[in-house]
Write a structure and sequence with these properties.
The complex is a heterodimer. Helices cover 54% and strands 20% of the residues of chain A. Chain A is α+β, with helices and mostly antiparallel strands. In chain A, strands 3-4-9-6-8-7 form a six-stranded mixed beta barrel. Chain A has a two-stranded antiparallel ribbon with strand order 2-10. A two-stranded antiparallel sheet of chain A has the order 13-14. Chain A starts with a helix and ends with a helix. Chain A folds into two domains: 199 residues, no CATH class; 178 residues, no CATH class. Chain A has 15 helices and 14 strands. Chain B is of the alpha/beta class. Chain B has one domain: 3-Layer(aba) Sandwich (Rossmann fold), CATH 3.40.50. In chain B, the strands form two sheets. A six-stranded mixed β-sheet of chain B has the order 6-7-8-3-9-10. In chain B, strands 2-1-4-5 form a four-stranded antiparallel β-sheet, with helices on one face. In chain B, α3 packs across α4 and α3 packs parallel to α5. The longest helix of chain B is centred in the C-terminal third of the chain and has 18 residues. Classes of the chains: A alpha+beta, B alpha/beta. Chains A and B meet through α1, α10 and α15 of A and α2 and α3 of B.
Chain lengths: 406, 227
């Protein structure tokens, strides 16, 4: 109690210095928390945009499909299996899909395209094709004999709504798949790869085309909470037969994880620079505190105060300043983070166009995950406390007679 | 009975370059209850001798025994603890802890010794009363005059009932009235409580009231007068 009292009074002996030190800690916490919140918000958005628009949070596939993604490794589904997956706790929607490739042809040109056989209602939860129709109309039923073609592919093949598309492929167990099928509409995708080579087909029509009756290549699952994907995947995995494999989106899209990690790494370098700037600022305060009180430490040592107690008092002083600064920093960062969570930071002009080009929405919604703010505050706290070890080392070396000559 | 035995103490500063001999073979015994002044011109070694007796500085040669303990055989931590329990210090510039009140400054030593809070408060109040500052217990050093601060310093030095009090030029920064009051008080504490005081001084008023006067010249005891 005595040491705390001394520490508290000592920090207010030089109010201006204490306030400047505290302000630098507040700034560090605010900057690092806001920056991390923006970065993590961006990653959440990247995941939502990519995972939420095509892959799904989880996919159920036949065991060999991941290594050999062809129709021979498709799943046979039935109502019971479908319901079982749908009724698993944490599952928001189940989207069956049959994906394969075909040679798509117009009058004069052909191009390889990805064929996505979709459940026309369930797919609205995932890639929302109904929202991407730029000409023509969306499907009416799962057995409708029609396709929706991506805008880039339509341009390349020089076809449009109302024309017919030639599709030639190899179906289930090598069956020949060929059809001349009407184009019901054109879809515009943000992701260039999808926009240049995508054909959507109603599920039953696709199954018939590939000769894969009652089969799908994957059941895409959307979880109710994106943070609970792992648990949902585990639940599904435990209740499905062994020849069904359950993958989280992280396993399906490792390149997205790598991109996020690479970006996070560069963000961490910036944060490190920030921590260093703040760290040196705090070190300056500690050095001044110890240097200008050398005489006082000499007196304290003379009258029998242990070096540990002197060091402890200094650590308590720094800890008090740091804790006050950190708490203030947390409080100060909250309005920024919540403001930009409710009103995302919007991009306009070319920047917006560039982001949209990659199928992402042109704004950044800050993450309000409390662990981001707490982590940043803890890092600043730990840095300060590490710097505060200096007084302990310093007091070890004090010679009372020399100190009192100052 | 001697409580301090100083044997053949020498102190040479700057030994490697141009050696300066501050003390040269000092032998000295201080008995319990003495009121001893160490006098001498500047540079004669008064402060160095006090620092060595107080365990703040180490001699180049010789030993200091306090109640049979060879001070310089103690490790740093033990030596600090020894000072805490056996020696009281009064400095020329008072050197109170600026963020603590008069009472807290006196209690500080006792709290360092781990005494119960109640005991610390009682002893602190008792000492401040003895030095005539019972109405200043809540004042911080900056709110006290030089004389009052030095009284608090004396009270702090006596808090743990040390074997002796070392005072380095305790009146150097005080006016005549404060010097006289402080000397009265120290003498009273010496006579009533048999507290041993050893102080260095230039001040003739202090020398006049000392019961034993050691005169140091060039690091050696020139005279040792017991009155």
């Amino acid at each position: 109690m005595l040491y705390l009292k001394m520490a508290w009074r000592n920090i207010w002996r030089n109010k201006r210095r204490t306030l400047i030190t505290m302000a630098s800690i507040v700034m560090a916490v605010v900057l690092s928390a806001v920056m991390s919140s923006m970065q993590e918000g961006q990653y959440d958005q990247m995941i939502d945009n990519t995972v939420g628009s095509f892959t799904g949070h989880i996919q159920i596939q036949q065991a060999e499909y991941k290594d050999e993604p062809n129709l021979d490794h498709s799943l046979r589904i039935n109502e019971v299996l479908f319901r079982q997956v749908e009724e698993t706790a944490g599952v928001k929607a189940v989207v069956p899909r049959i994906d394969s490739y075909a040679l798509a042809g117009g009058l004069h040109k052909t191009k390889a395209a990805m064929i996505a056989g979709i459940d026309i209602e369930a797919e609205k939860h995932l890639s929302e094709p109904d929202q991407k129709v730029i000409s023509g109309r969306y499907f009416n039923s799962n057995s409708e004999h029609a396709v929706l073609i991506s805008a880039g592919l339509a341009d390349y093949l020089n076809v449009q709504t109302g024309d017919s598309l030639v599709l030639i492929s190899s179906g289930f167990h090598g069956v020949s798949a060929a059809d001349l099928i009407p184009i019901k509409g054109v879809l515009k995708f943000g992701i260039p790869d999808m926009n240049n080579g995508m054909v959507y087909m109603p599920l039953q029509t696709a199954q018939e085309f590939f000769g894969a009756y009652n089969r799908v290549t994957a059941l895409a699952v959307m979880a109710q909470d994106a943070k609970g994907i792992h648990e949902v995947a585990q639940r599904l995995s435990s209740q499905l037969p062994d020849d069904y494999k359950v993958y989280g989106w992280q396993e399906l899209m490792p390149e997205l994880i790598q991109a996020i990690e690479a970006d996070r790494g560069s963000g961490q370098i910036i944060l490190m620079v920030l921590y260093m700037v703040v760290g040196f600022g705090i070190l300056g305060t500690v050095l001044m505190m110890t240097a200008e009180r050398k005489f006082e430490f000499g007196v304290l040592l003379s009258i029998g105060t242990s070096r540990f107690v002197i060091g402890l008092t200094l650590i308590l002083e720094m800890a008090t300043i740091t804790i006050l600064g950190t708490i203030s920093g947390i409080i100060a960062s909250l309005p920024f983070i919540y403001y930009f969570n409710i009103n995302p930071m919007e991009f306009t002009g070319q920047a917006a166009a560039a982001i949209e080009e990659y199928g992402m929405e042109p704004f950044i919604r800050f993450s309000t995950d409390p662990s981001i703010i707490i982590n940043q505050a803890m890092i600043v706290l730990v840095i300060t406390l590490l710097i505060s070890i200096y007084p302990l080392i310093h007091t070890k070396r004090i010679n009372p007679v020399e100190a009192m000559r100052h | 009975m001697s409580i301090i035995q100083v044997r053949n103490i020498s102190k040479i500063y700057n030994k490697e370059h141009i050696p300066v001999r501050a003390l040269n073979g000092i032998d000295l015994d201080i008995n319990k209850g003495e009121f001893t002044a160490i006098v001498g011109p500047s540079g004669s070694g008064k402060t160095t001798l006090l620092n060595i007796i107080g365990g703040l500085d180490t001699p180049t040669e010789g030993s200091v025994n306090i109640h049979g303990t060879d001070m310089f055989s103690l490790k740093d931590r033990k030596l600090i603890d020894f000072r805490l329990h056996h020696i009281g210090f009064v400095f020329q510039a008072y050197n109170l802890i600026p963020v603590l009140t008069a009472l807290e400054n006196v209690m500080f030593i006792l709290q360092m010794q781990g005494r119960p809070h109640k005991e610390c408060v009682a002893r602190g109040m008792e000492l401040l009363k003895q030095v005539g500052l019972e109405d200043k217990v809540d004042k911080r050093p900056s709110e006290l005059s030089g004389g009052q601060q030095q009284r608090v310093a004396v009270a702090r030095a006596l808090a743990s009932k040390p074997d002796f009090v070392l005072a380095d030029e305790p009146t150097a920064n005080l006016d005549s009235k404060s010097t006289s009051d402080l000397l009265d008080m120290m003498l009273q504490l010496n006579e009533l409580g048999e507290t041993t005081f050893i102080f260095s001084t230039h001040d003739q008023r202090v020398v006049d009231r000392a019961k034993r006067v050691l005169t140091l010249v060039d690091g050696e005891i020139e005279t040792d007068e017991v009155r």
